[in-house]
Amino acid sequence: MVFEEALYINGSQRKMLSIEDVTQLATNSLDLYNEIKNNLFCPECEKPHLTYNSCTTKSNYFSTRNLESHADTCSFKCKRATNHQLELLENDEKSLDRLQNRLKAVILSCFSEKKAARNPFVIENKISKVSTNTENQSERTAVKYAIPKKRITNGLSQADVDQLKIFYGKVRVRCKKHRNGHKLYIFNLTQRQLPMICSIYLSEKVYEHINIKDNDCFNCLISFYVKMEINKQDDKIYYNCILTDSRKMFFWKIDR
């Protein structure tokens, strides 16, 4: 498992840095990069140092420094959630309400130095285990599983398609009428010359419950829980998804 954010900690200084932030420093400000590179930590548990990896054939990423380990509460230490467990996150009304709160916590965890009360990328299931005492009483034990995640501004790929994931990023959004609904077109906010990242289709029913109007264009922090699809047209690749409920997306408008 790799990371696309790192928490910079140096004394009382704390700052969340994205993989794009560090890539820019490593490319354009080598002196600043050298100053921060040994103070990058896991953004979830803050235990191990992270190392920046620059790649030519895939997206850049942070990895755990050798011989250092994560806390048990970190998604890095958890087994990947099964498809059934991921489907249960959007199974009914109560699940969708909880999912909306989870997506809000993703914004807090990935774009600020604050920590959510619970790790939004971890599912905790309670299971019964028979105690070894003489009365054979059962005990409830928590087992943790990791929810797949992807920072969309660090490049989507085939690995992000056809599975439920939490997608998130700092982006620019344009809303346009599309057939019997609307589409949100998602662009990279910091590198506007890049092509569109993906699109999100909203039915009219879903559109009515989202605070976005036709032809709106704004910057935001966004998180959404979907299965991404891939389409190829004229040798170009397009990523798109369908939002089936407004609670499967959360966004926070920002100036830039």
Order of helices and strands: EEHHEEEEHHEEEEEEHEEEE
Q: Strand count, sense and closure of the main sheet?
A: 8 strands, mixed
Sum up the overall morphology in one term: globular
Mean pLDDT: 93
**CATH architecture level-2 label of the domain at 149-254:** Beta Barrel
Helical proportion, percent range: 10-25%
Radius of gyration: 20 Å
- The rounded distance between the terminal residues' Cα atoms is 30 Å
Descriptive report:
The two termini are 30 Å apart. The chain is globular and about 55 Å long. A hairpin with a 2-residue loop joins strand 10 (164-178) and strand 11. The protein has 256 residues and is α+β, with helices and mostly antiparallel strands. Among the domains are: 5-76, no CATH class; 149-254, OB fold (Dihydrolipoamide Acetyltransferase, E2P) (Beta Barrel), CATH 2.40.50. Helix 1 crosses helix 2. The longest helix is centred in the middle third of the chain and has 19 residues, at 93-111. The mean pLDDT is 93. It has five helices and 16 strands. The strands form four sheets. Strands 9, 10, 11, 12, 13, 14, 15 and 16 form an eight-stranded mixed sheet that branches. A three-stranded antiparallel sheet has the order 2-1-3. Strands 6-8-7 form a three-stranded mixed sheet, with no helix packed on it.
Summarize it.
The protein has 256 residues and is an alpha+beta fold. Helix content is 18%, strand content 41%.
